[in-house]
Amino acid sequence: MARSSRRLAVVGASGQLGSDLVRCGRESGYEVVSLTHDDVEVTDARSIEAALEAATAEVVIDCAAFHQVDECERDPATAFAVNSIGAASIARAARRRGARTVFVSTDYVFSGTKPFSGPTGPASPVDAYTEDEPTGPVNAYGVSKLAGEMLVRQADDGALIVRTAGLFGRTGSRGKKGTNFVEQVLRQVRIGAPLRVVDDQYVTPTYTLDAAQAIIALIDLGATGIVHVAAAGACTWHEFASRCVAQVEARLEVERIGAAERSAGAARPANTALCVDRLASLLRRPVRPWTEALAAYLSEMGHV
Fold this sequence. Notes:
Elements: E1 7-11, H1 16-27, E2 31-35, H2 45-55, E3 59-62, H3 69-74, H4 76-96, E4 100-106, H5 140-155, E5 160-164, E6 167-168, H6 181-191, E7 195-198, E8 202-203, E9 206-207, H7 208-221, E10 225-228, E11 235-236, H8 237-247, E12 254-257, H9 277-283, H10 290-300
Parallel strand pairs: 1-2, 1-3, 3-4, 4-5, 5-10, 6-9, 7-12
Antiparallel strand pairs: 8-11
């Protein structure tokens, strides 16, 4: 069967980012093949081969991931089976069929030891990690995704690897039982429960719709290599939660806590702010700040 020149296959299509990639791909004129866990088992090379043979796509976007950070620490074998070996199998199968690979990676490939000097507005390259800086993950999830990056590039030297962070979207995360950080905060607001949020870890909150639109644009441009696909700016998780509360005009105190006070689990890097200068240069437009993206999400979801 001939491969369509305007056909995308999205592996992990039912996930938070995957669902928006399906939507944005179709809006951009692509025929999109949605591959969910029911359609392909990413730890089974034969399942991948069969799914991509049937998909006949020119681009394969790998959004499949085992991204529950604490669970990855407890079960590193599964983390590597999905995030590393599975990613490599997808890239090899795509390459054999003449398709391009897009692998979705994470900010957690960085050590987080880079100081964040603030303020928590647009993150400068001084504070935020660029694509070319040394990696050094501190947990099994980050290690497995970094290994995935390396194996994908080995399988397909023309692959596009996008690192993103702090995702929130309409579909919600399977790892968070179909919700996301924003919705978790707003649930606490609705029931009047206290909020205690880490204030010494910096992140770049990213709306999945923005990320999906950027990834489709990068595919159209033929981009390769590593690109950070995230919002502009950075904040602590406490500031992110506080902004959510303020945007819905709620009166609920958000207590600051340190990372050491959170429940035991995998280590988290202290600063994974992502520099998006390369993305802005490729797209030839500014990247939307996380504050504006959050406001858009809240409006679209009917929270404001």
